[in-house]
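[Meeting: bench + compute handoff]

Bench side (C.D.) handed over the final construct sequence. Compute side (W.E.) agreed to return the predicted structure before the next meeting so the bench team could plan truncations. Sequence as handed over:
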Amino acid sequence: MSSDENDSVQTEADPWQDDERLVEYFGAAWPQVEAFHRLLTDEGVLRGLVGPREVPRLWERHLLNSAAVVPFLPVTGRIVDIGSGAGLPGVVVAALRPEAEVVLLEPMERRIDWLNEVVETLGLSNAVVTRGRAEDLHGELRADAVTARAVAPLDRLYRWALPLLGKGGVLVALKGARAQDEVEAGARWAKKLGGGPAEVISASTIDGAEQTTVVRVVREAERGVR
């Protein structure tokens, strides 16, 4: 990247940065979410967890995008965020669901270090950082809900996530424009693993922000692949 490109990235403003509706939307979670935004803007970029060009889009495309999943999650119980990475959506979920235990599941050590620092800095007492892969924890880690963002196509995600859920547990995945195609491609795996019909939902947060595509699947029966 040239110095001119660097300057343009650094000087581009986030149109949501001083929008008072953010404070109202996040409510009691605002101090933690705002502090998380600062960490992502600074240390997140330095550590390569957030691209510099994403900084002016953090609120809309990352933090509000992550928050869009929360209404589809239980208020209590255990929520597992698969492939938590920089903490999206898991850290935002933990801030907005303080009565739930939120497991930030991540296999990479450098990201585990980051997540531990974030959890400590934000005082997220309900968040548990766990190193590992979902598929290696089947039968050990149980969840009432599983979240995932930009981790894998649904056919693979079903194989990782659904075995973590008991009957009635829910997988809520943040997806993009090809969500319906992924639903159709993964339908066989969802059925084999006890998943019910997938719902593709356009979720809103604040007026004017991009809608988020959410795929929601309830596990109707506990069974493995036959």
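W.E. noted at the follow-up: The first strand starts at residue 77 and ends at 82. C.D. will use this when planning the next construct.
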